[in-house]
Write a structure and sequence with these properties.
This protein has a single domain, classed as ABC transporter involved in vitamin B12 uptake, BtuC. It is built from 15 helices and 2 strands. α3 packs across α12 and α12 packs across α13. The radius of gyration is 20 Å and the shape is globular.
């Protein structure tokens, strides 16, 4: 517990407690539609946190993170449909395959000193490669899609992730909270310090004895494993999977936009960004309904990212935390 709250201002802890309490009781007061939006917000917050661990903490840019969502989703769905294996058990296989794939990408990239944008292109290439493979496997539905049986949503079956909207809400809320706690612990650990040293200057980090290959591989493994868990939840929430949407580069970009807007390398940036972009996207969809304007949401995302890059290049969270005195590095009294 001390490691979790060390260096956190009292006012930040109070605001976090109020925010957490509001999320816990939200299903009691909001409509089904608002609850569905909150579910998607939390999903993007969770995946953004997993991606942020890799790029924000360790400085390794991935633009193909939908790959790990897809691997987790298809693995757990296939085990459930063909063998009747519950998702919480199938999750272990999903995470293992996601981590294995991430380690293969990491090994190729780090062993041959592929960095920056070239490493990002490597992640995109793997995502497209797996997309083509899944697209031609009838056992996984191929191009026709992979569909899970939809059970009675009035009865909650948590073990098989079959149940009501509220059940899925609390599952993704718990996952998001767990990811936040894990990232906080990792960031304050010796491992987190090594990652930050690598992110800031790889050559200097190596000169003081940091094993670049080992610690970058650990970052990729943890990030891909966490994202694979998101894929399990994704498959059982949506009940249908299509390779061209699950593994696409557009889906990867969608997953990371919230973190970019909220603040890469910060703990609450992914959560803040998800709570900003997802509701705004829903509002935009509602306002343009019936206008038949193709690509309006993508255009809006592009404008948001451009504005952040121009006016708040570190994201919104560092600015907000400094504005309200939540940043422990500032000299003012708590």
């Amino acid at each position: 517990m001390n490691r979790l709250i060390k260096g956190v201002r009292p006012r930040a802890l109070v605001l976090l407690a109020v925010f957490a309490a509001a999320l816990v009781i939200a299903p009691l007061f909001v409509s089904s539609y608002v609850l569905s939006v909150l579910i998607i917000v939390l999903y993007f917050a969770y995946v953004g946190q997993a991606w942020n661990l890799m790029i924000g903490f360790a400085g390794q840019l991935s633009l193909g993170h939908a790959l790990f969502v897809g691997i987790g989703a298809y693995t757990s769905a296939a085990l459930f449909i063909h063998f009747g294996i519950a998702p919480w058990i199938g999750m272990f296989a999903a995470v293992a395959l996601s981590v294995l794939t991430g380690c293969i990408i990491g090994y190729l990239g780090f062993r041959f000193s592929i960095r920056g944008v070239y490493f990002a292109l490597l992640t995109i290439a793997f995502a497209e490669f797996v997309l083509v493979i899944v697209d031609h496997i009838p056992w996984l539905g191929s191009t026709g899609g992979f569909f899970l049986p939809v059970a009675n949503r009035d009865r909650i079956d948590l073990f098989n992730l079959r149940g009501s909207q509220i059940m899925f809400y609390y599952v993704i809320l718990a996952l998001t909270a767990a990811a936040l706690v894990l990232c906080r612990l990792l960031l304050n650990s010796k491992l987190g310090l090594y990652w930050q040293a690598i992110r800031e200057d790889q050559e200097s980090a190596e000169a003081i004895g940091v094993h670049l290959f080992r610690y970058k591989m650990i970052a990729v493994a943890i990030s891909s494993g966490l994202t694979g868990i998101a894929g399990v939840w994704y498959a059982f929430y949506y009940n249908n999977l299509f390779p061209e949407t699950t593994f696409s580069t557009a889906k990867s970009i969608e997953l990371i936009l919230g973190t970019v807007v909220g603040g890469v390398g910060t703990l609450f940036g992914p959560i803040l960004g998800a709570f900003i972009l997802t509701p705004l996207g829903e509002v935009l969809t509602h306002l343009t309904e019936g206008m038949k304007i193709d690509g309006i949401k993508s255009f809006f995302w592009g404008v948001c990212v451009a504005a952040i890059v121009l006016f708040r290049p570190t994201g919104l969270w560092p600015w907000i935390s400094a504005l309200f005195g939540l940043d422990p590095r500032r000299g003012d009294k708590p």
